Amino acid sequence: MTICVSQFNDHSAAFQRETAAPEADFIVLDEAGDFSYHRCQKTLVQAFEAPSEAICIVDRAGLVYGLLHDADRQLKLSASRGLVEFHWLRQAWLRTQNLRPQSYPLHRLSPASSVTLLNGMFEALQLEHSPSIDLAAWTVRLPDATQHPVSLAAVEQSLAELDSLDHVVVQDPFGHCYCPVRHQTHRFLASAAGFISYQEISPSVSSPLSGLSRRG
Fold first, then answer.
1. Which superkingdom is the protein from (predicted)?
2. How confident is the model over 105-115, as a mean pLDDT?
3. Residues 139 and 85 in one domain
């Protein structure tokens, strides 16, 4: 896979010698093409067995890191290798979402900047794969009620019990609103046997919703 560091980096720049803070969090693209979220260096390093398994490690500033062995053959995080190539990162993210829609169900609006892209990826991966007890609850607005599930899994459980997702709005702990879309994995199976994806909608149409199709 193509290296993820931008070709426009100044190789003498100080940021390329930076080391990440122990408490920094990261997103990682691995050799299988999956993205994951890691709350700190320790959990990141523990998730891998060899440097080659982590294709691209990115922090919230957009700096790229790798894994390497220390003198005792233990894995550690490298110094920064430069800024990530944001076009490459967005394409890799979209490809993973399209190939594994059940694992990556949160779809944000097209990012207006590299900052928006990074923030959206960090938030989505944290919500999808590493729910935190520090986050606020979700909000599910139904035509006749409002619910506050504590996790994405709880949201899905609640929505699976509904016959229709029309006029349902889901808001994540970061304040982004989504239109839930049900996907059937097989035409002979009940709709509840499929999965639900979440398409972000702009604040101007998040309430009320009307005329939106929810067919997958």
1. Bacteria
2. 96
3. no
14 and 118 in a single domain? The answer is yes
Q: Hey, what are 49's tokens?
A: 């067995």
**Contact at 8 Å (CB) between 148 and 138?**
yes
Opening angle at CA 124, ends 122 and 130, nearest 5: 80
The amino acid at residue 188 is F
pLDDT in tens, 81-104: 999 999 999 999 999 999 999 999
Before 208, cis peptide (omega within 30)?
yes
Question: Is 216 in contact with 210 (CB distance < 8 Å)?
Answer: no
Last residue of a domain, one of 77, 107, 130: 130
